[in-house]
Specification:
Two copies of one chain form a homodimer. Chain A has a single domain, classed as TIM Barrel (Alpha-Beta Barrel), CATH 3.20.20.70. In chain A, 46% of the residues lie in helices and 14% in strands. The first copy, chain A, is built from twelve helices and eight strands. Chains A and B meet through helix 4, helix 5, helix 6, helix 7 and helix 8 of A and helix 4, helix 5, helix 6, helix 7 and helix 8 of B.
Chain lengths: 277, 277
């Protein structure tokens, strides 16, 4: 079962860290840009540097696609070179009418070989069911996102007084018959995270927005994880993969990235230890 | 202005037809599958056969991606070979937090060169603004979709008694300062289409769901178009690109596809003529 597999990794590595792999031509250290495949080399370095700390990697397709098809080829190559057993999350936020979503689900879970994928809920059950039907894969439904636009629709109150994102949570619970459903909840929404976790003790949570987006790591670990301090993945992208400083070589860059990843994992561990104390 | 450009095409071709290009390995006539690039050859044949009738082409990315990266290469080649002036709609339904959506918008509108793109609304303004900032491109926001899952969230009543999809329409009106916003409303929702058009006389409508999904062409043309019988694009996919019958050659296939496209355009014309009478 996918949830068990992830929780075993969490326990083994004492980490909730997911590293967001978002290659950005304006931020990748310049020495990579002189290599034959800068996107692949950069991504591979990030993975090398963080593999002791991360339980998951979450490439965001937009960043790879921004390099055109060669960016997607780089992602394809990266997928073949990831450490064994690590969890891979396709952050592509795709869903469509049923017969079309079936193609997306098969692309991410079979062709690409991801363990998990993010999906937007707006089109409802038949747009998500093709993902859910892969029992051994994790489907992460956008619930309350970390961006300002979350107030436009997600926080709108429904007739029963609850915000729309709670209606999404309720459906997610209903759709969780294979224990393979998760929610995406922004780290900068600590209050809501706490409330949502209380309402959904069994769901997986993917929590982006720590670091560059200002969410608190401590609160994300404390409020986002379940009663056993598991079932949560905290994504950190920019704050780890683009460390401050100038780097002249792969070695220097990887050292700085590893230091950042370690820093975050140590902070996670002490947050969880405080919980246990 | 993009709306003017599309409406000029509508007037010139007396057509609201958008052809959905959804290559499906299980449905493409087998003689294409023996060619070197079946996806490209099939898509090109569909375009050849329909170019007298269609004002727009809407490739759905899921179908191209289902062939792996070679499917996307085929789409890239197709984009370079489309007839001049025809409208191209990237049906990819992508949106993410602001800085990420910016990459999607630039990918679809600049790298790929599409005239329009579909976006889901769940993540709100900053996830859509990067698309809107291209004043000469059309951003088509999912409003009320043609699938069963539309009832899960889109039709949920908000505190003011209105369904969520109307909140999306209201935001779309607010965001339409460059006259480059459209809504996606399913053809099988004739009543709602009529009501939404009345509330949004200035927005563009993309209407999928005629044909295989059972929406009425007559009602879509009548209720979806604006006061001048323009500003609407009716998408037909499967019912045109997969005509019944066995085809042994490109010529036979294109003839059958052209016949279907003509049939639909003649039906659209008579629906609009009845309106004018």
């Amino acid at each position: 079962m996918i949830k068990k597999r992830i929780n075993a990794l969490i326990e083994q590595k004492k980490s909730l860290l997911c590293v967001g792999i978002d290659p950005d031509a304006r931020k990748i250290p310049t020495f990579f840009l002189r290599m034959q495949d800068p996107v692949l080399e950069f991504a591979r370095s990030v993975v090398n540097a963080t593999s002791d700390f991360a339980i998951a990697y979450k490439p965001n397709f937009a960043f790879f696609e921004s390099f055109g098809l060669k960016g997607l080829h780089a992602l394809e190559a990266l997928m073949r070179q990831l450490p064994n057993g690590v969890i891979t999350i396709a952050d592509a936020k795709r869903a469509d009418i049923g017969n079309t979503s079936r193609l997306y689900a098969s692309a991410f879970f079979e062709t690409w070989g991801f363990d998990a994928a993010t999906v937007p809920p707006y089109m409802g059950y038949d747009s998500i069911e093709p993902f859910l039907s892969y029992k051994e894969k994790l489907t992460l439904i956008l619930c309350l996102t970390s961006n300002g636009g979350s107030q436009d629709f997600q926080e709108k109150r429904m007739q029963d007084g609850k915000p729309l994102y709670e209606a999404v949570l309720e459906k997610a619970l209903e759709w969780n018959q294979f224990d393979n459903v998760g929610l995406v909840v922004g780290a900068n929404r600590a209050e809501e995270l706490k409330r949502l976790r209380a309402k959904a003790p069994t769901l997986f949570f993917l929590i982006p927005g720590v670091g560059a987006q200002g969410g608190s790591l401590e609160e994300s670990a404390r409020y986002g994880s379940d009663a056993r301090h598991q079932s949560a993945i905290i994504n950190i992208g920019r704050a780890i993969i683009y460390p401050d400083g100038e780097f002249g070589s792969v070695g220097e860059f990887e050292k700085a990235v590893a230091r950042k990843a370690e820093e975050y994992v140590l902070a996670m561990r002490s947050a969880l230890e405080r919980l246990e104390a």
